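Q: Convert this sequence to structure tokens.
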Amino acid sequence: MPDLFVDTPLLTDLGNQLGVIKSEFANANTRSDSIAEATGHTGLAEAVTDFAHGWDDRREKFIENIEALAMTAPAIAEAFDETDQIFAKSLTDPPPPQQPATPGGPTAQ
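A:
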């Protein structure tokens, strides 16, 4: 059976990086307003502002999805770490004793 390798610190870091990206998306209008003012041209400033603000609905959906991924990536890493510890323990600990079958109890299929 092939080995499975999951870089859990990388997944945790991915969650942190996605949090930064989410903040960038959330602050995009503020930044675009500043950039629009800095263009020095009324028409260009309006185009920059219109474009940035025109993405509001789509940006909100991106923000929701990025936030979900930012929370999920570390949770996946934690689940893999916990599973790895359980599997490692099962290799080193003796198995639990078998319970004798009870008459009239459930049968194995």
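The chain has one domain: 8-92.
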